[in-house]
Amino acid sequence: MLDHYRTQLTRIPFGIAVLASLLVLFMPASGVPSAPPGTDKVVHFALFAVLAATGRFAGFPTAKLLAALVGYAAVSEVLQGVLPIGRSCELADGLVDVAGAVTGLAVAMLLRKISGASSR
């Protein structure tokens, strides 16, 4: 019975990461703070790394999670270009999103491996 609640609790960080990504990716250009060039790439990378890591810790299968995040990266970039929010669609941002997702999955797998080895 406690496993059910533990599983539900592990999804909260993923839900928060999804909400944060929606806010960051679809905020109108007027609300985006000015920053040095390249900062947006760091934000994209970190955002998708957190989505991937929290998704794995929430128990989503790696292949399905990665496919969903690649799709989300593509759709979010297209929407940034077509929605009237003053944002642009950039292939580089999409590629950085995917790199962040792959890195987040790798970090999650490494942490699980380390924690599994230390709990023996």
From TrEMBL:
Q: What is this protein identified as?
A: VanZ like family protein
Q: Which UniProt keywords apply?
A: Membrane, Transmembrane, Transmembrane helix
Concerning InterPro entries, the annotation shows: VanZ-like (IPR006976)
- Superkingdom of the organism of origin: Bacteria
**Pfam families xref list:** VanZ
Does Lipid biosynthesis count among this protein's keywords? no
Claim: Transmembrane helix is one of the keywords in the record: yes
Q: Where is the VanZ-like domain?
A: 39-111
> For this UniProt entry, which segments traverse the membrane?
12-30, 42-58, 65-85, 91-111
Coiled-coil-forming residues are none
